[in-house]
């Protein structure tokens, strides 16, 4: 398992370098502009042309779907107004599992050996078949372009995986601004036979990585972003301080040739996101499988090889032993000068070599959206409470209803 994981990780890691994320930024910003337009339309249709009640989970879900599909596959969709699009339909089926699917997920997490014997999967065969065909067609389209002798210039996740799989395509792997993909013919030749070599993925592995990327980025981005807005709406003083920092950023962006670099200087915004994830982590707990017997010193307890270990993320994040006044939303605790929590007590994205590989992309999508939203609008709470439920190890946010007011 470890050797297989390392091989796949080696292939897909180059898709998440700073250089690649920087080149993805314009794609994401297009989706941010669409999100702003959607909010403006909702406000324009309300009784007041300056404010309106909005389910921000719906809005951020559409943004996340659009940006993730754009970044993953290079396809433009309308997440809010094109709900019958087969890509959108299948994405929603993946992130809105049925009762049977949730039962399967429980068995996979709690008894992986049993799940393997029963050949249980998180995703339905129908959804898997759709994305298998969808990915095949995209690869065939790009293969036909290569056959014409034209270079393929794309920065989406699928293409970056293809680039990374070519040992000789160092220019693309190193994140240069201009690159061609003629060496991807090597990939095509390998994949047609479905052979797997040191730096290659089978079709099934390629599809699985694309789908997992889609699931992780979509749900993490939409939920975290909507809960950030909910949290600052509940705490106007935090919202005001965040706006001041963002207002300064917009002034710097006008004089800066590299807004991607500038956005990472917003330390208070980072703290707001971190504190939101502390109170509202995506998962109740993380799961890891022991690779060998391990004795917990001083307890007499031995974790056996292949046993599943559950790490209670949600509980640790709200434990006063690790975070003072854990129920209080206080972004300042994550400012560089104040960070004092113990290692591995804050785990919204996991930790170590097996942490969530798409974390940096999700953070970029959240930051780019949050900067624009807070700069354009003021967010207020409504009488409708936050709706959340638990499904397996997932914390599902159903709706985030806020009143949005345009800044003058």
From TrEMBL:
The keyword Protease does not apply. It is found in: Endoplasmic reticulum membrane; Microsome membrane. InterPro entries: Cyt_P450 (IPR001128), Cyt_P450_CS (IPR017972), Cyt_P450_E_grp-I (IPR002401), Cyt_P450_sf (IPR036396), Cytochrome_P450_3A (IPR050705). Gene3D superfamilies: Cytochrome P450. It comes from the Eukaryota. GO terms for cellular component: endoplasmic reticulum membrane. Keywords: Endoplasmic reticulum, Heme, Iron, Metal-binding, Microsome, Monooxygenase, Oxidoreductase. Its main location: endoplasmic reticulum. One of its GO terms (molecular function) is iron ion binding. It holds the Pfam family p450. It is a peripheral membrane protein. Heme binds at residue 356. SUPFAM superfamilies: Cytochrome P450. Cytochromes P450 are a group of heme-thiolate monooxygenases. They oxidize a variety of structurally unrelated compounds, including steroids, fatty acids, and xenobiotics. Belongs to the cytochrome P450 family. This is Cytochrome P450.
């Amino acid at each position: 398992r470890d050797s297989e994981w390392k091989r796949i990780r080696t292939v897909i890691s180059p898709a998440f370098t700073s250089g690649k994320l920087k080149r993805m930024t314009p794609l994401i910003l297009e989706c941010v502009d669409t999100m702003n337009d959607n909010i403006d339309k909702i406000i324009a249709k309300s009784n007041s042309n300056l404010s309106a009640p909005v389910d921000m989970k719906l809005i951020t879900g559409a943004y996340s779907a659009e940006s993730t599909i754009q970044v993953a596959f290079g396809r433009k969709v309308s997440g809010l107004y094109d709900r019958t699009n087969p890509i959108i339909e299948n994405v929603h089926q993946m992130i809105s599992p049925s009762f049977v699917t949730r039962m399967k997920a429980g068995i996979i997490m709690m008894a992986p050996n049993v799940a393997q014997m029963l050949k249980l999967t998180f995703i339905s065969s129908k959804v898997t078949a759709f994305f298998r065909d969808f990915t095949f067609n995209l690869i065939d389209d790009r293969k036909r372009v290569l056959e014409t002798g034209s270079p393929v210039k794309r920065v989406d996740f699928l293409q970056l995986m293809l680039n990374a799989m070519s040992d000789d395509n160092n220019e693309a792997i190193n994140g240069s601004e201009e690159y061609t993909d003629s060496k991807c013919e090597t990939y095509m030749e390998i994949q047609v036979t479905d052979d797997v070599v040191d730096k290659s993925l089978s079709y099934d592995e390629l599809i699985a990585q694309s789908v997992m990327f889609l699931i992780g980025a979509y749900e993490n981005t939409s939920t975290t972003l909507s809960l950030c807005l909910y949290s600052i709406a509940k705490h106007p003083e935090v919202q005001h301080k965040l706006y001041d920092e963002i207002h300064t950023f917009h002034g710097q962006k006008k004089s800066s040739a590299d807004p991607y670099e500038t956005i990472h200087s917003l330390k208070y915004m980072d703290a707001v996101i971190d504190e939101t994830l502390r109170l509202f982590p995506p998962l109740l707990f993380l799961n890891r499988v022991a690779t060998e017997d391990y004795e917990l010193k001083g307890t007499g307890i031995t974790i056996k090889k292949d046993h599943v270990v559950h790490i209670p993320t949600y509980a640790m994040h709200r434990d006063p032993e690790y975070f003072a006044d854990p129920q209080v939303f206080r972004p300042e605790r994550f400012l560089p000068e104040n960070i004092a929590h113990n290692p591995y007590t804050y785990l919204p994205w996991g930790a170590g070599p097996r942490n969530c590989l798409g974390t940096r992309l999700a953070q970029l999508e959240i930051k780019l959206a949050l900067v624009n939203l807070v700069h354009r609008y003021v967010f207020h709470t409504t009488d409708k409470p936050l709706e959340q439920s638990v499904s397996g190890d997932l914390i599902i946010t159903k709706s985030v209803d806020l009143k949005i007011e345009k800044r003058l």
